[in-house]
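Bench notes, afternoon.
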Amino acid sequence: MKKIPIIFLSLIVAGSITSCQKFLDLKPVSKGIYVDNQGSDSVAYKTANEVEAALGGVYADFRNEYFELDYFVNGDAQSDDAYAGADNPANFQIDDYNIDATNSNVSRDWRYLYAAIGKANPVINNVDSVPDPTLSATRRSQIKGEAKFIRAYMYFQLVQLWGDVPLQLKEVTTISAETLPVIYPLLFPPRAPMADVYAQIISDFDYAAANVPVSGSDKGYVTKGAANAMLAKVYATIEPHDWTKVQQYCDAVISGGYSLLPDYDQLWDNEHENSSEAIFEINYEGTTSSGNWGAGMFMGKDWKKFNIPANDLVAAFDRENDVIRKNSSIIFDDVTGSWSDNNWPQEEYPFVNKYRIYISPSPQNYIFLRLADIILLKAEALNELGDVSGAANLVNQIRTRVQLPNTTASNQADMRLAIEKERRLELAFEGHRWFDLKRTGRAIEVISNTTGPDGSNYGYVLTQNELLWPIPQGELDLNAELTQNPGY
């Protein structure tokens, strides 16, 4: 199939195109919607191998810059768990809640996420039309379910970052003057309300849960457990939260054959990849074609790294006497003569310790979904449904593994804070903290009270408008149907 990015639509229309034209393959630009050359005598994919390869291309976007680096910047450096580190002004804006519409991270993350959606849509919309009889009906449904999971996963990132976003579910197959009224809204869509985006996310995850396999050759493939885990997270995020649904899908995961590793550090020692605790884990082989360059962004003394652990988080570990998780999550080193930092002395400088193989190309895996996250999410659901003791049992299950005493929380309000703290210490540097604070309505209060190196208020100023990112200015320039978020 020949493809053309939508940025060239104006050139096509200006040339008075009256039939589908062929163009050279180009890298996706802007929203990642492709115009596919599909004449009346052709189909998108002719063989099972072709559609399987297309699905592989959709999976490949879990190994791009968004998921190797920006996912963690957005979830951790944008929270009270980490400082931006390094020397990137775009990251400093994110860390300081001072983002503008020209921020390069904001622009590229929009493009990465919509590019992945642009790859998933043709698979979803065309797999049933593949004429190859060797492609069974069951496998067709599985392929569609896997692609729908990935599309929903990308939309979940988008809606949490930007709120209302364009909802793009179809690819354009032909361009002509006659079809312009039909394809224009596909190429230049307005922002859809968050409720509509969440409805589509839930629909896609529901389809995936019903059709994808129970297991794969490794945890990098979409499974029923991953789909159920994401449904639990979506129902805990959507307004109003549906705690009954959260409990339902957490239970489906917990009964799905997963189990906590006995030793917390086994999650990060790189000797227990694709473990019983992992639900969705991106696998790397450490080759030039499958190497995780992102791991080298967080640890090493060759240059100042990203996501430097925050004083506030270290203090939280110390207050809890949480030695096991602190040592697994943070490592201190002497960087004297390498660089200085206002937040930490050179002699005892912290690095993220969960991604330890920072050679390039690295075989370091990333775990995006794991059982402890879901257990604590179920605890949250039980607490909100009035079962404080049931929530305590689950929190204590997580604390027992790291040799901490049972929680002392005994009422719903205290249990909310206990679960929030437990999620912070358990899931540090896994990209969850900022989104946890947002979905619980705690972001402004917590960030405003973040402490610095001397224990005094760090001075962050976060407003309601800054809970959402600005729509990238480049996208506004390309698409007159887009509107900007308030405050930008």
